[in-house]
Amino acid sequence: MQPLAERMRPKNLDDYIGQQQIIGEQSALRGAIKQNLLPSLILWGPPGVGKTSLALIISTELKRPFYMLSAINSGVKDVREVIEKASDKNLFNQNKPVLFIDEIHRFSKSQQDSLLGAVEKGLVTLIGATTENPSFEVIPALLSRCQIYVLKPLEKDELIDLVNNAIQHDELLSRKKIEVKEYEALLRLSGGDARKLLNALEITANTQADNIVITNELVLKTIQQNLALYDKNGEQHYDIISAFIKSIRGSDPNAAVYYLARMLQGGEDPLFIARRLLILSSEDIGNANPNALLLANNCFNAVNVIGMPESRIILSQCTTYLACSPKSNASYMAIDLAAAMVEKTGDQPVPLGLRNAPTKLMKDLNYGKEYKYSHSFDNNFAEQEFLPESLSGTKFYEPGNNAREAEQRNYLKKLWKEKYGY
């Protein structure tokens, strides 16, 4: 018998739960499907949010032949064989075959190159699924021929809908009397992953023959006793990278290097780890220790050049250094606050003194006239308004409580006095 997650896989767009931002009634993707004008595309999102299900639904809705490869166990030869089959099918069928590549970010450059020709010639419509940023993982030539759709983690209400839908309509669970008294443990274990959620539900429901009352205590006790079953698809991969990042953020080099070893022993791509360190160095350390970003960048480049097994030493050095660095998310918070303000207030006019004035008309309109060139003043500073008038005095960057950012705070307070409240 198939697992519950497979049995409950949606068959059409109306049954599909979540991702309304890309498959809602007025969405461009739904319109393309209805008109049978589907481009090649990349579905980018965390595990268990419906990437494979969406690819299958698209193929079904368009009545096209469907071919599926997993990047984990497929080589260039497998890709070419599938493309050859798809090409033969295309000769006798006006509907272009769909080629679905799961975890396309794990394909090497040569494997992705082997796809490129088929996509360029229109032999197949490619749908790639990835949990990684395709800008980093997919070659530019292939990426430029695909539209990217971002899938979000499922919301609480959507996850609850999945649970109730399975209890009511699954061929096995619907035969049992199941009452969900508490959802919290199921939702927490899932982490927004529908596959994990349904896996946890099925294991819990199988603990008793009938009259099952699902509580947080029952779910946690059952999953702890059946952890191997719960994680049978290797989903613990995502838990370990999460623990790795949180250990560094929490300044524990011992836990961090332990999870690093777990990943390396499990065959994780060293560049995947190095890229995570690069992101963390800015997101969680930032200006508290600017050298962190430099070291992480050098780590990424070194790992790219050297490869395993020596790269484990470089990764360990970078991991322990970042874990031992002072922490600050001030830069991360600043850009999020600024982005929220832009979304809220729209395109505010740039002050006249800061505008570029390449033409005589612009100069006549006083573009740039009141600008003060900072280097012409004492201490390379001249007080003037840089933000749009309506946002004057708005503070986005709040230096953290550490030695380096304390220096920044004092410097900014000396320059701007009370304007920004430093």
Describe the protein's architecture and organization.
By secondary structure, this protein is α/β, with parallel strands linked by helices. It is built from 21 helices and 7 strands. A 5-stranded parallel β-sheet has the order 2-3-4-1-5, with helices on both faces.
Summary, kept brief:
This protein is an alpha/beta fold and 422 residues long. The protein has helices spanning 4-7, 20-23, 28-34, 51-62, 76-92, 109-120, 134-137, 140-143, 156-169, 184-190, 194-205, 216-225, 227-230, 236-249, 253-265, 270-285, 291-306, 311-323, 330-345, 360-364, 403-416; strands at residues 41-44, 66-70, 98-102, 125-130, 147-150, 178-180, 212-214. Among the domains are: 19-150, Rossmann fold (3-Layer(aba) Sandwich); 156-230, Helicase, Ruva Protein, domain 3, CATH 1.10.8.60; 236-323, Up-down Bundle (Zinc Finger, Delta Prime, domain 3), CATH 1.20.272.10.
Note the gap between the termini: 63 Å
**Oligomerization state of this entry?**
single chain
CATH superfamily of the domain at 19-150: P-loop containing nucleotide triphosphate hydrolases
Number of strands: 7
Q: In terms of per-residue confidence, which ranges show pLDDT below 50 for 5 or more consecutive residues? A: none
User: Roughly how much helix do the residues carry, as a percent range?
Assistant: 40-55%
Order of helices and strands: HHHEHEHEHEHHEHEHHEHHHHHHHHHH
Structural class: alpha/beta
Provide the gyration radius in Å: 27 Å
Largest sheet: 5 strands, parallel
Give the strand order, joined by hyphens, for the main sheet: 2-3-4-1-5
Please name the CATH topology of the domain at 19-150.
Rossmann fold
